[in-house]
Design goal:
Helix content is 57%, strand content 4%. By secondary structure, the chain is mainly alpha-helical. The chain has a single domain, classed as Four Helix Bundle (Hemerythrin (Met), subunit A).
Length: 183
């Protein structure tokens, strides 16, 4: 566990930054999902790759487990069926998106309740103690990993129909100039 605690100002910025990172990751994933047909949402690249729908189900299940009663119960809830998260049993796209939305809503709801005083409280995940800030950083990494998968799979399946969600290849100079104009 960390020896030095962050100051109140530093702590508040961690919570705000985490919310912004999650908003950005959600926006990126949603942009990829929107570009994905119903058929491709459920298509695996090969037998060892999860479909976008399965990744959405797993990530939402993880978010619901970790963030429900975040400060008071273990992050691995007894009713979570992680293995089933890797089975695409959604009846349709709307059901996949509804579950996805539930997971994200829980994250933002619980992050909104946190204060500076909570960052160095101890919570458990699978019985292991973690400071809240460590659990948050662990979740940021997990979300980023799976959002990257969603975007890459969507991009591959879209082929030439893909609309770039970030800075397009060869467009860094123009992007940077545009950002500087905003200042």
């Amino acid at each position: 566990m960390p020896e030095k605690l962050a100051t109140s100002k530093e702590s508040a910025s961690v919570i705000i930054a985490t919310i912004e990172i999650f908003r950005s990751q959600r926006k990126l994933a949603d942009g990829a999902i929107e570009q994905t047909s119903d058929e491709n949402l459920r298509k695996s690249l090969d037998e060892n790759t999860n479909s976008i729908a399965v990744i959405m189900k797993h990530l939402a299940g993880n978010l619901l487990s970790r963030w429900t009663d975040f400060l008071t119960t273990d992050g691995e809830k007894p009713n979570r069926d992680r293995d089933n998260e890797f089975v695409d049993d959604f009846p349709d796209r709307a059901a996949a998106i509804a579950f996805w939305d539930r997971g994200w809503a829980k994250v933002f709801e619980e992050l909104g309740k946190l204060s500076d005083a909570d960052l160095f409280k101890t919570i458990t995940i699978r019985g292991e103690p973690h400071h809240v800030i460590d659990a948050i950083m662990r979740q940021v990494a997990h979300v980023g990993y799976h959002v990257g998968q969603i975007v890459q799979i969507a991009r591959i399946l879209a082929g030439d129909e893909w609309t770039v969600l970030t800075v397009p290849r060869g467009g860094s100079k123009q992007f940077n100039e545009k950002m500087l104009e905003k200042k």
